[in-house]
Amino acid sequence: xxxxxxxxxxxxxxxxxxxxxxxxxxxxxxxxxxxxxxxxxxxxxxxxxxxxxxxxxxxxxxxxxxxxxxxxxxxxxxxxxxxxxxxxxxxxxxxxxxxxxxxxxxxxxxxxxxxxxxxxxxxxxxxxxxxxxxxxxxxxxxxxxxxxxxxxxxxxxxxxxxxxxxxxxxxxxxxxxxxxxxxxxxxxxxxxxxxxxxxxxxxxxxxxxxxxx
Length: 213
Fold this sequence. Notes:
Layout: E1 4-13, E2 23-29, E3 49-51, H1 53-63, E4 67-71, H2 81-90, E5 94-99, E6 113-118, E7 142-147, H3 150-162, E8 170-175, H4 182-192, E9 197-198, H5 202-207
Parallel strand pairs: 2-4, 4-5, 5-6, 6-7, 7-8, 8-9
Antiparallel strand pairs: 1-2, 1-3
């Protein structure tokens, strides 16, 4: 198994997704081909350290969490991540992959829960959405929309309907931190009776913008 460039490995609570609030080990990989307007992990674009898979697995084992979140940056920018995720699954870990949706998820181990972050117009990276990724999603997978304003919300609402996402996987609507209030987003969802889950970045409300949480 090839080496991976790792920004950090840490123990925290999962701040998003259906596992929000659950203790987890995070493996944050270095590098990302996108530059979203609301990105809060720009420090992971560069730097980090090169680690062999065995070193990563050993550090994950030290933290002793069943849930392991592979995040970034953009994890799929490093092809060796596939073998790492398979090894974690083989070891009995529950593995979540947080990906931008700009790179193919076709080869991701089917045991991995894919968290696909579709990019809204407000992100500045709308054109990077790889729509065929939706074809590889199952009922355990999740699509996340980070929304900056009302226009983003209406785009997401239309996307859910036109792409027939209801019932295919979990749908998560998130307000971009500091740009859209959770209350406004909640009211829009209720008004439209959308079949989605409102989520907030739990870790931001606990630790603010401190890296490694």
